[in-house]
Design goal:
Elements: H1 2-12, H2 14-25, H3 28-42, H4 51-63, H5 69-94, H6 109-122, H7 126-129, H8 136-146, H9 151-176, H10 180-184, H11 186-212
């Protein structure tokens, strides 16, 4: 429970934690953010990382002059694109064997099955759409690799999705971050982003329950 409480504290107080990292590690903040985004998009064992809210808060710090916005955007888009491609090739190399694995702390087959259904519904556009759906965005390139999606097509969707996802959230934080009502209620804004992020998953779950009823 202490680990869960610590994770919730980090998510809800991302602004404070990121400001501390900037103050104590300076330019290393870029490497830290790169690693977080790369892991969320590139490793199926880290779908829990708070990508959406992290990007928005990083944008608000850029608005305050703590981070260079254009460098942040370019670096994190590269992290997302690189993570996607790593995940694709892991999926392509590992293959369907992962569907036979039992649930563990590091891997939940239900997430994989949910992504597979999402992929069946939206096709290649899943790589772009899934950017805004936590957990699904981690598994989407993995499933694309398992399904041996044509790599050139995957690259196109991955690049477009990376630019759109990183750009929309970091620049939203950048342009809205200096608005007093946003800065004074940043925790509520973060909660709102988290809620909006998980809503598609909740809706999909309710639809699945309704179909099976």
């Amino acid at each position: 429970m202490e680990l869960v409480a610590a994770f919730v504290d980090i998510v809800l107080n991302l602004d404070r934690h990121l400001q501390w990292l900037v103050a104590n590690y300076g330019l290393w903040i870029y490497a830290i953010l790169f690693l977080i985004i790369f892991c969320e998009t590139g490793l199926v064992v880290t779908p829990f990382l708070p990508g959406d809210s992290l990007l928005f808060v990083a944008g608000t710090l850029a608005a305050g002059g703590d981070i260079y916005i254009h460098g942040l955007f370019a670096l994190l888009a590269l992290a997302s694109f690189s993570g996607d491609n790593t995940n694709y090739w892991i999926g392509r190399f590992v293959g369907p064997r992962v569907f036979t694995r039992e649930k563990s702390w590091a891997f939940n087959p239900a997430h994989l099955e949910r992504t597979r259904r999402f992929y069946e519904r939206h096709g290649g556009k899943t790589i772009v759409i899934a950017r805004f759906v936590p957990i699904v965005r981690t598994f989407a390139p993995f499933v694309a690799g398992i399904g041996r999606m044509y790599y050139g097509r995957f690259l196109f969707y991955s690049f477009a999705g990376s630019v759109f996802w990183i750009g929309s959230l970091t620049f939203a934080g950048y342009y809205f971050g200096n608005i007093p009502v946003v800065r004074e209620n940043l925790t509520l804004v973060i909660i709102g982003i988290v809620v909006l992020s998980i809503m598609p998953g909740v809706i999909e779950y309710l639809r699945s329950r309704a179909r099976s009823a």
